[in-house]
Design brief:
It contains three helices and three strands; from the N terminus they run ααβββα. It has 145 residues and is of the alpha+beta class. The protein has a three-stranded antiparallel beta sheet, covered by helices on one side. The longest helix is centred in the middle third of the chain and has 14 residues.
């Protein structure tokens, strides 16, 4: 809708990273020989990025859903190769319990740490390819940057 307050772009924060030379000069963890310990600063809000992607998709006609899980994949034989291909997913709204099918011309597995679970829905023999790890966030005072 044209009146949707979410379309305002003022809530988006751009990634910010200091210039390399300024960072090297000001960082207390840099040594005299200018070797650094791999400190990289930046801001990224993945929730806002995902919201922006969903709203853009909706603007171009996509149906979007939140709090939804894949129950099983929808498959059919490719008429040219005879090989079984994924063409969608049977989903459940975890709030209401309502189930529905989502069909697509192209299906992309962009599930992050759930990649292997979805790949195993396609074929139980698929080996794990994703090793999730825990992130570390360190907050330091501005004069250390």
């Amino acid at each position: 809708s044209q009146n949707c307050p979410c379309e305002e772009r003022r809530f988006l924060i751009r990634h910010q990273q200091p210039e390399h030379q300024a960072h090297s000069r000001r960082s207390p963890i840099s040594t005299e020989s200018h070797h650094e310990i791999g400190l990289q600063t930046g801001q990224h809000n993945d929730a806002r990025m995902n919201l922006a992607i969903a709203l853009t998709a909706a603007r171009y006609g996509a149906a979007i859903a939140n709090y939804t899980e894949v129950v099983h994949l929808l498959k059919r034989a490719d008429p040219q190769t005879g090989k079984e291909r994924v063409y969608g997913a049977h989903c459940r709204d975890v709030i209401t319990g309502q189930e529905f099918d989502v069909r697509a011309k192209c299906v992309i597995n962009a599930t992050g740490p759930f990649t292997d679970a979805l790949r195993k829905m396609d074929d139980q023999k698929n080996p794990d390819i994703c090793q999730p790890s825990a992130g570390v966030h360190i907050v330091i005072l501005g004069y250390y940057r």
